[in-house]
Amino acid sequence: MSTLRPGNEWSSRIFLRPIGSPLPLGFIALGVASVALTGIQLKWLPVSETHQVALALLALVGPLQFLAAVFGYFARDSVGGTGMGTLSGAWFFTGAVLVTGSAGSTSRALGLVLFFAAAALLVPAVAASSGKVLAAAVLVVAAVRFALTAVYEFNAGNTWEQISGWWGLGVCVIALYAALAFEMEDTRRATILPTGRRGDGYRALHGNLADEVDQVQHEAGVREQL
Question: What pTM did the predictor assign?
C-alpha cells in the first residue's frame, strides 16, 4: 500500500499476514493417496473398488493438496506451493484415468504423465534440500513412487506393480511422519521431531522478524515483475 508522506514523498508499506503451515495437510493427503493406490496394487482391495479409489483421489486428495499449494504460495513458500501443486495435479489426473478406464487396466498416457510428474517433483525437492531436508525427502520418495507406477503403466508387469505398491506404503509412512513433525513444529513454535532444518530453513523458525522481512521487497507479489 502506498501513502503520501509529509513533504509530498510517497512511501510503500507491505502487509504480511500470518497463516498456519499447509505442509501437514498436504503430506496427510499424500499418505491417503499413496496407501489407497497401494491397496489396489497389492490386491488388498478388490479390483472392483478401483473406481472408489479414484473418487478418493478426485474428491479428497486432489482438493486438499490444491488447497495446500495455494496456502503455500500465500505463505511465501514457492517450494511448498510448487510441490503440493504438482502432487495435486498428478493425483487429479490419476483419479480421472482410474474412474474413466476399465478396472484393472493400465494406461500409457497415465504412465507418461507420471514420468513427467516424477521429474517435476525433483525441482522443489532440490530447492527444499538446502533448508528443509525432511520436506525434500518426502518429495523425492513421492517422485520415485510416481516413476515406479509409470513403469508399471507402460509394462503392465505384476512385479512392477508389487514394487510400486510396497514403495507406496513407505511413502505413506514418511508422509505421516512429516505431517506430524511439521504440525508439532507449527503449533509449538519449536522443533520437537527432527525435520532436517538448516540454513534458511533453520532461520525461518529460529530467526527474528528482521531476518524474515529483510529481502521481502524482492519477492514475487512485491517486486514489479516475476
Answer: 0.85
